[in-house]
Amino acid sequence: MISLRHLSRVYPLKSGPYYALRNINLEIAEGDFVSIMGPSGSGKSTLLHILGLHDSAWEGEYRFQDVAVHQLAKPARSELQKRNIGFIFQAYHLIDDLTVAENLEVPLSYRNVPRKERQSVVCDLLDRFQMVGKRDLFPSQLSGGQQQLVGVARALAAKPKLLLADEPTGNLHSDQAKVIMELFQKLNRESGVTIVQVTHSAENAAFGSRIIRLADGMMVGN
């Protein structure tokens, strides 16, 4: 699904170039559940945001399902992202003045999905994640674990092929974190969605099938 060749991310600083990532060569197969680990500043989140096409100022080659991302113009990259990639954030990033149901509908509206179809998908997600009774609540009325469940459901609304998670349990207590990780594992095994997560937790990383380790912007284990 993903192939990176000699990928680097350099930030020009007054003191000289800073390599957030250096010469990354990586293959991720469809259906993988990959955990990226490493100390703070090792380049974990930088790599995740490049995979998610949120960052385009990198050097090297990136192929996504045989599409040469490094050769695409910005509009084509954006379209590739919208059609294939879901993102889950540590801080949830729900829209405060929208209800649970309305938050779930947002990624579908970006894809110009007809309203009736959007409502059907939202109903299915509410049922699947056992949140029917919370459909009209606002994020501030939910616990952290419930907000992250909404975040996961929202990321899955458009049926992405790749799910990226940046410290998805970082703001949750251990019981809530376990629920989220077990959900990821179930989604990966039953739906076949490819998952790449950044985590500091060895316990969370163990839910995946493979661990990639970074240090000082370089891969030190795969």
Summarize the structure.
The chain has seven helices and ten strands. It is α/β, with parallel strands linked by helices.
Features:
alpha/beta; Rossmann fold; 6-stranded mixed sheet; 4-stranded antiparallel sheet; 10 strands
Please, could you describe this protein's structure?
This protein has 222 residues and is α/β, with parallel strands linked by helices. It has a single domain, classed as P-loop containing nucleotide triphosphate hydrolases (Rossmann fold). Helices cover 36% and strands 28% of the residues. It has helices spanning 44-51, 74-84, 100-110, 115-128, 144-156, 174-191, 202-205, and strands spanning 2-13, 16-28, 33-37, 59-64, 67-68, 85-88, 162-166, 194-198, 210-215, 218-221. It has a 6-stranded mixed beta sheet, sandwiched between helices. It has a 4-stranded antiparallel beta sheet with strand order 2-1-4-5, with helices on one face. β4 and β5 (67-68) form a beta hairpin. α3 crosses α4 and α3 (100-110) packs parallel to α5. The mean pLDDT is 94.
